[in-house]
Amino acid sequence: MTTANVNGITIGYDDEGTGDDVLVLVHGHPFDRSMWRPQVEHFTAAGWRVIAADLRGYGETTVVPGITTLDVFAHDIAGLLDHLGVEKFVLAGLSMGGQIVMECARTFPERLRGLVLADTFAQAETPQGRKNRNDMADRLLREGMSGYATEVLWKMVAPHNTAAGEHVANMMHNASPEGAAAALRGRAERPDYTATLEAITVPTLVVVGSDDEYTPVKDAEYMHERVPGSTLVVVDGAAHMPNLERPEVFNKAVAELLAQA
């Protein structure tokens, strides 16, 4: 296990490949960096240095109970990359990871060479959404992850994607309830990133599974319409995890983005 002490926590991460072309991958909730294994292997082989870290509260990174807002995640990423001596990079995130990417674009746009926004959405949470996230956080602390993980598995991945489903189920069942709850409470307070999207000046890919119920195609279209010059790719037959469900299609779209960055 490779770790770094950053911002008062210990971060577990993978750092594979060498060179100045750096791709940073940000996982979603309630997952860990292993969700990016197909991309780490593919883009390392293609000559990129690829960094994938566990967010605070997940995987091998320190669990901090309470509330973890998106700006805290963003500063952890910046701190890890400072530790690794990486100044500029392409940044990709899925779901909550995509919202963290947008926070990074708001906070330190000068460090970004390109962006991938996968199965995510930019708008602020609604009052009902805030209640739902906080209620779910309470439930995870009360019951643990297993009931939730079983309920949502086949919304995370399309039912025919059984291998991806097994991987996703393992990540969710193994997630820390305290870490997941803290992230849910933080996401309930997230800002509207529409103005951030309109200010993006680097090559940007917006990608979404055709069957994603959590962040439907219309959410991807909203972002695509607001990021100048962005590309939209809809991955047929995938739900919320197209990078695992159809990695060859996902990787091709990201490779085309990297060629521009």
Automatic annotation (TrEMBL):
<dbReference type="InterPro" id="IPR029058">
    <property type="entry name" value="AB_hydrolase_fold"/>
</dbReference>
<dbReference type="InterPro" id="IPR000639">
    <property type="entry name" value="Epox_hydrolase-like"/>
</dbReference>
<dbReference type="InterPro" id="IPR050266">
    <property type="entry name" value="AB_hydrolase_sf"/>
</dbReference>
<protein>
    <submittedName>
        <fullName>Alpha/beta fold hydrolase</fullName>
    </submittedName>
</protein>
<dbReference type="GO" id="GO:0016787">
    <property type="term" value="F:hydrolase activity"/>
</dbReference>
<keyword id="KW-0378">Hydrolase</keyword>
<dbReference type="InterPro" id="IPR000073">
    <property type="entry name" value="AB_hydrolase_1"/>
</dbReference>
<feature type="domain" description="AB hydrolase-1">
    <location>
        <begin position="22"/>
        <end position="247"/>
    </location>
</feature>
<dbReference type="Pfam" id="PF00561">
    <property type="entry name" value="Abhydrolase_1"/>
</dbReference>
